[in-house]
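Q: I'm building a small set of examples for a reading group on sequence design. Run inverse folding on the following structure and report the sequence directly after it, with nothing in between.
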């Protein structure tokens, strides 16, 4: 890999201003491009530097064309432009659909194209494209291609399978001065998790030292219709029941308008009082903010129009359109010193005066719009570094952000679209073909396929789960799938439900997430919208099996003995429409925990377990909250009874094994 065949300079208009084809590094060097290519076992590095012979750079792209062989037995992972952009595996010969032209009056009115990269060159070609990194699966081996320097411009990996070409398109502008202009790596191996780890090691990126968080956020139940009584009522529902969450967040709807970051009349005691109440309940406090945009009706838009970014034609740059606000919203020119002073004051007020612990910073992609003389990568890198310094030792949850700009710079990051109150929006999905759509299915696809970023680049936020019965249209199987996949593959685990309205069964299911522990993804296989993921926590190995289809699916399992609530599953499993299960891998050692219903992950509620002949002793984790269920232990086949925590229990046959059942009594 990385046999370079062509270098091409392309302006933003799509016109090739210069190109060179050659098999010789010397030829490229004579035209301004010094190339270094090194190869070791499983790793190939490629660097391109600019020398004094380089032709003038346009506002546009530098394309590198490499040979790569594709066939229809391969799978290709494409990482979307930003948080909300659908990210999944494709066949190499698939196409990422454009917004449907016939519906342009709709998506143009709502500025849908501004949320993604639809206006870029990538949609003008019949090829798959991926931001920052991409992956090709060939038989049982993975090939991870990635950029190690996105701070000077985003890298877009374009799979032209019909030409057997992998094209790396790098943003350029006349002011690019980095000595190492392009720094690429090709990693290959059978352990995808290890490849991701190596990718971030090579970037010298490590996630910030932060823990998993569980909690509540206001958006997906109340949206902008929040007030002080709603927030405090939900807070009391957690505090009164001593629910062991650690973060309570207020989302959009607290402010006077987007851009005017002062509490509105629905919060008569102010936001400091809210933060104080949250701390009194012993929870961390979070607040939503969209620092780089302002809506049309905001006072800063009306009184300071010079704060708004303008394009080359002098028009104000629109970031999007929201029915929850006053229609169009605009990009703030954050580099304007006066705007910086304003935002610094906002941040200091929220984090120091009001004393919130975490900021959810939203719509960050807006800064990629309307740029003149800078690349999107440069702009986002500088802005994210500025935000990181501004927040200091408090925490950032980034949302609506190109992921490469958040690597190593934020504690938490959304890795999916917003969850919807229904499974899918068909009009947006297949009608308009909008990749940033609010959709539960869209969110789950990205959550699954970006899972390996968790605790490498940041802590993954898969968005909320929904267990309530009212104000939503998900059926019980869809709700459980959303809940289990989020719990398995995310580490920021929020709901917006009013838990005071849960019946006993809902409350018991909700409590079965505690204690929340980090699960490490070991391997995964996804085909269309079903597949499996192997996870590990301590010595326990789990298998997440999921089916996102509206029809049942038969799933071939990876090697191993996997136990579900109905017994051992060795080769395959039948999953109903929208069904997800979590199975536990059994070992050869006896006695052993075979299965448990005390936690959504069997055995995770146990802090410590010891065995001796005829005895099993264990301790619950202090955050274990469930009151119902049982533990199933496998014991020797000739055993008539066994002692568990001092209780003598008779054995029985279950699925061809001798077991004892220990009922939870709390």
């Amino acid at each position: 890999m990385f046999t370079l065949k062509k270098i091409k300079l392309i302006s933003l208009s799509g016109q090739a201003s210069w190109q060179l084809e050659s098999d010789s590094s010397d030829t490229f060097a004579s035209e301004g491009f010094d190339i270094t290519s090194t190869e070791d076992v499983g790793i190939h590095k490629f660097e391109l530097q600019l020398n004094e012979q380089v032709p003038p750079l346009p506002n546009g792209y530098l394309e590198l064309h490499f040979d790569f062989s594709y066939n229809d037995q391969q799978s290709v992972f494409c990482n979307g432009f930003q948080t909300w952009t659908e990210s999944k595996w494709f066949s190499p010969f698939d196409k990422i659909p454009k917004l449907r032209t016939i519906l342009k009056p709709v998506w143009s009115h709502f500025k849908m194209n501004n949320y993604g990269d639809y206006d870029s060159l990538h949609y003008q070609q019949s090829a798959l494209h991926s931001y920052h990194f991409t992956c090709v699966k060939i038989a049982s081996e993975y090939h991870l291609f990635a950029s190690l320097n996105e701070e000077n411009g985003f890298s877009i990996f374009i799979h032209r399978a019909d030409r057997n070409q992998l094209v790396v398109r790098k943003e350029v502008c006349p002011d690019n001065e980095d000595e190492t202009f392009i720094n690429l790596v090709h990693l290959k191996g059978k352990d995808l998790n290890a490849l991701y780890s190596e990718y971030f090691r090579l970037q010298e990126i490590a996630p910030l030292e932060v823990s998993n968080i569980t909690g509540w956020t206001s958006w997906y139940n109340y949206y902008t219709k929040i007030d002080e009584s709603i927030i405090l009522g939900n807070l009391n529902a957690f505090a009164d029941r001593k629910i062991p969450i650690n973060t309570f967040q207020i989302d959009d709807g607290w402010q006077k308008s987007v851009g005017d970051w002062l509490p509105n009349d629905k919060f008569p005691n102010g936001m400091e009082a809210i933060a104080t109440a949250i701390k009194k309940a012993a929870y961390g406090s979070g607040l939503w903010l969209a620092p780089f945009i302002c809506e049309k009706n905001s006072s800063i838009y009306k009184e300071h129009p010079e704060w708004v970014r303008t394009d080359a034609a002098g028009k104000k740059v629109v970031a999007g359109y929201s029915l929850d606000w006053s229609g169009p919203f605009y990009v703030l020119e954050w580099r304007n010193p006066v705007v910086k002073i304003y935002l610094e004051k906002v941040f200091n007020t929220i984090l120091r005066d009001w004393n919130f612990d975490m900021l959810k910073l939203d719509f960050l992609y807006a800064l990629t719009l309307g740029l003149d003389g800078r690349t999107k990568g440069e702009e986002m890198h500088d802005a994210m570094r500025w935000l990181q310094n501004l927040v200091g030792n408090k925490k950032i949850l980034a949302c609506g952000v190109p992921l490469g700009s958040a690597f190593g710079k934020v504690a938490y990051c959304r890795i999916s679209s917003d969850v919807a109150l229904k499974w899918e929006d068909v009009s947006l999905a297949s009608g308009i073909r909008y990749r940033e759509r609010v959709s539960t299915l869209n969110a789950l696809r990205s959550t699954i396929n970006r899972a390996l970023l968790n605790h490498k680049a940041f802590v993954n936020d898969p968005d909320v789960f929904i267990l309530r019965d009212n104000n939503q249209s998900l059926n019980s199987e869809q709700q459980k799938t959303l809940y289990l996949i989020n719990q398995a593959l995310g580490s920021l685990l929020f709901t917006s439900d009013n838990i005071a309205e849960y019946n006993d069964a809902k409350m018991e299911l909700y409590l079965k997430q505690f204690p929340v522990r980090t699960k490490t993804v070991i391997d995964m296989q996804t085909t269309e919208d079903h597949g499996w993921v192997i996870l590990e926590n301590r010595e326990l190995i789990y298998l997440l099996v999921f089916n996102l289809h509206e029809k049942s699916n038969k799933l071939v399992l990876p090697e191993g003995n996997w136990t579900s609530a109905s017994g051992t599953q060795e080769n395959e499993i039948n999953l109903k429409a929208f069904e997800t299960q979590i199975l536990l891998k059994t070992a050869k050692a006896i006695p052993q925990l075979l299965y448990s219903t005390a936690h959504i992950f069997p055995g995770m509620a146990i802090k410590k377990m010891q065995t001796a002949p005829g005895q099993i002793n264990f301790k619950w984790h202090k955050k274990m909250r469930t009151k119902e269920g049982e533990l199933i232990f496998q014991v020797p086949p000739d055993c008539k009874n066994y002692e568990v925590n001092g209780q003598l229990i008779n054995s029985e046959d279950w699925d061809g094994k001798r077991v004892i059942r220990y009922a939870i009594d709390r």
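The first strand starts at residue 4 and ends at 11.
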